[in-house]
């Protein structure tokens, strides 16, 4: 009797493990889906860490109860190596070489000015100035009055080359570029959006033109109630009709945002490709408002290297509020650069995003 029960449990676990592997493979490849055709499914990459955790639990299960079957979860993890590496890369740390460029991207959440008096030291501004980055791409830099005067003054003093851009109402989205290298030209990359923007800059890096693109792609427009609902959904995905209704509403919003975001990303990718065809090195930064297994990320990665995947370690969570913990901030580069020591710095929680930075070593190909 006991042997029969044991055999039944074994086969149930085996089948469940296979289902988990298939789920990991499917969720890990949803970035291939066009959001306009599959608005809900295209956002399932957000659930990748949950499915990955289930597969890791099977690894522990077989290691403890039936070691000779451990090959199954190991095979599953091997098959899904590419999406796993996208979500949580691991690299041997290599010190950045001399004369590398430090690039910082940071959604500063309007510098959280409501928490500070204008004459106080703003920790976000202080962090940026102390980062000693050579190129800084900032998003959500909306700030006014004396706060604006003091922040702009500090940045102008530290960075000889800078640009502050904004969208007209109703979007009123603001971004900044701070650079130690001359800005030769700037251009807005045109796409449809009520407030999100992308700007491209040609800078002179040691007599070499380099294209720097600063992006803030379409936001997901989730309310605080939606974010709380997402947290509840993750904690208890099958608990009650309220959770089901909330999850459907959230998926609808995420789907609509993904549909809007896709042509924005397509426009930027086409712009980048045009410059790559002209042999111009490219650095691309910004808040993608999408996870590492998404159409947005994959579209840019088709042309450029994700500096965090190439040289960072761990999941690198950059958005960290309301129970939504995911890497949505990115730095990409063309293969004219080699990335070193990419990191999402979680030591400064003032914004709802953590900053991401990387060192890039220029290695001319031509």
From TrEMBL:
Keywords: DNA damage, DNA repair, Endonuclease, Hydrolase, Magnesium, Metal-binding, Nuclease. The keyword Magnesium applies. Its cofactor is Mg(2+); Mn(2+). SUPFAM superfamilies: DNase I-like. It comes from the Bacteria. It holds the Pfam family Exo_endo_phos. GO terms for molecular function: endonuclease activity; hydrolase activity; metal ion binding. One of its GO terms (biological process) is DNA repair. This is AP endonuclease.
């Amino acid at each position: 009797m006991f042997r029969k029960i044991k055999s039944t449990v074994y086969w149930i676990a085996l089948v469940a493990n296979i289902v988990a592997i298939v789920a990991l493979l499917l969720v890990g490849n949803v970035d291939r889906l066009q959001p306009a055709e599959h608005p809900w499914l295209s956002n399932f990459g957000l659930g990748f860490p949950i499915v990955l955790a289930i597969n890791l639990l099977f690894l522990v299960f077989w290691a403890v109860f039936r070691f000779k079957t451990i090959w199954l979860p190991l095979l599953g993890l091997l098959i899904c190596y590419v999406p796993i590496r996208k979500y949580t890369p691991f690299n041997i740390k290599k010190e950045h070489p001399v004369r590398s460029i430090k690039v910082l991207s940071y959604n500063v959440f309007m510098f959280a000015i409501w928490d500070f008096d204008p004459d106080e030291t703003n920790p976000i501004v202080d962090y940026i100035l102390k980062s000693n980055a050579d190129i800084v791409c900032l998003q959500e830099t909306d700030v006014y009055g004396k706060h604006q005067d003091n922040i702009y003054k500090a940045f102008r003093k530290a960075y000889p080359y800078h640009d502050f851009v904004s969208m007209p109402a109703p979007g009123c989205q603001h971004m900044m570029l701070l650079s130690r290298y001359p800005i030769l030209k700037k251009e807005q990359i045109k796409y449809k959006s009520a407030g999100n923007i992308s700007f491209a800059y040609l800078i002179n890096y040691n007599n070499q033109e380099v294209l720097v693109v600063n992006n803030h792609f379409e936001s997901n427009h989730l309310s605080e109630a939606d974010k709380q609902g997402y947290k509840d959904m993750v904690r208890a995905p099958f608990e009650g009709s309220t959770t089901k209704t909330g999850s459907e509403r959230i998926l609808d919003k995420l789907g609509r945002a993904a549909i809007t975001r896709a042509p924005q990303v397509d426009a930027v990718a086409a712009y980048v490709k045009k410059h790559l065809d002209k042999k111009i090195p490219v650095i691309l930064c910004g808040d993608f408002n999408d996870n590492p297994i998404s159409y947005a990320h994959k579209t840019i990665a088709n042309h450029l290297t994700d500096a965090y995947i190439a040289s960072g370690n761990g999941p690198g969570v950059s958005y960290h509020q309301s129970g939504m913990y995911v890497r949505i901030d990115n730095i990409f580069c063309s293969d004219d650069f080699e990335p070193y020591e990419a990191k999402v710095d979680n030591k400064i929680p003032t914004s709802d995003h953590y900053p991401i930075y990387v060192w890039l070593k220029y290695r001319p190909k031509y």
